[in-house]
């Protein structure tokens, strides 16, 4: 037998021994885990989560608690900890699945607020991962609303309200992004439709002043001065300190126009409601 063949056989033997040793080690670890108490395995999961939050080790330990001690309090806690661990790993779908499983298995339990919050922020945090996805944003809003409405006294309610406002702002921002695109392309009617959505449906967001200013720009481009003046009047009344009002004011005065409510369009109705307080 040649030296090359001998070396190949030796390498093969070493690999076999390594695999068998690995299997034996894995079996040994499994035996050791199965001899531990639920609390001890849970503690291993907490340690793994602290030392290696990006690895799946913690989730595996918590799953072992659930498997070996399914009717214990530690098993119940392990389900929500799996959700938390998966969220830390940015495995958002897995986090939501574990959180929802907890809510299904233990409705009204002491960690229900936390599970619902993990479910909600797993939608919310994924928005930033993949961009302003409107579907995810709507789901985040729905899940956050549950935290706010069903667990108003929990430690998660305040954070949920803040994230709800930010997610709401995401939706308005998406409308603005599309509206600005149409405006740059000269598609003024399409732009107006987007800015109108912001003014009518997202009026509490940070995008409203710009939306009103872009309406001034769009209506002036179309020669619809009554609508432009009315949009500027609403902007001036509600956001007079905004630089967008300054821009709108210059646009109007440059054409000899004033910021005042005129005509009977949809903006006039908003003016009557938001400025004059007339709802009928």
UniProtKB/TrEMBL annotation:
Domain of life: Bacteria
UniProt record, GO biological process: Gram-negative-bacterium-type cell outer membrane assembly; protein insertion into membrane
One Pfam family recorded for the sequence: YfiO
Keyword Lipoprotein part of the UniProt annotation: yes
Localisation: Cell outer membrane
GO cellular component: cell outer membrane
Gene3D superfamilies in alphabetical order: Tetratricopeptide repeat domain (1.25.40.10)
Domain Outer membrane lipoprotein BamD-like: start-end pairs: 36-232
PROSITE patterns: PROKAR_LIPOPROTEIN
Record flagged with keyword Lipoprotein: yes
Keywords of this entry: Cell outer membrane, Lipoprotein, Membrane, Palmitate, Signal
Membrane topology term: Lipid-anchor
Role played: Part of the outer membrane protein assembly complex, which is involved in assembly and insertion of beta-barrel proteins into the outer membrane.
Subunit record text: Part of the Bam complex.
Family recorded in the similarity comment: Belongs to the BamD family.
Entry protein name: Outer membrane protein assembly factor BamD
Higher taxonomy: Bacteria, Pseudomonadati, Pseudomonadota, Alphaproteobacteria, Rhodobacterales
